[in-house]
Specification:
The chain has one helix at about 45-65; strands spanning about 1-10, 10-30, 70-80, 85-90, 100-110. The chain has about 120 residues and is an alpha+beta fold. Strands 1, 2, 3, 4 and 5 form a 5-stranded antiparallel sheet that branches.
Length: about 120
């Protein structure tokens, strides 16, 4: 990880952190991103039933609208405290121009104060 502090102009201070990670390119069906189980879905039998109903409705909507694929990159890196961070980047409906399914990722985090 690279860190950098910058002063732009006379007042604005920025903190930059650059992380290196990996990304796995894959396909998902559009609309299926609503299908997920959260920790609170396992808090009681009723919560689990409500979650399964939510997932069932999302699956039905996907099949009613027809399948449409989207390409995503699942990005993984380790933060400054050693925690594993995973997030997804939507790459659109056309195949990305990579020759491999696993590629490198550079994550740039810019921290600054927003002046209203």
């Amino acid at each position: 990880m690279n860190e950098n502090t910058q002063r732009a102009g006379s007042e604005e201070i920025k903190k930059l952190a650059i992380f290196e990670g990996e990304a796995k390119i894959g396909e998902i069906m559009q609309g299926l991103q609503a299908i997920q189980l959260r920790p609170e879905d396992f808090s009681s039998p009723v919560a689990l039933q409500m979650a399964l109903s939510r997932i069932y409705e999302a699956v039905l909507k996907v099949f009613e609208s027809g399948p449409r694929k989207r390409y995503v990159a699942e990005v993984r890196f380790t933060d400054s405290l050693g925690n594993s961070v995973v997030f997804a980047v939507d790459l659109g409906e056309s195949p990305p121009p990579f020759s491999k399914d696993k590629v490198k990722a550079r994550i740039i985090v810019e921290i600054y104060e927003d002046e209203d």
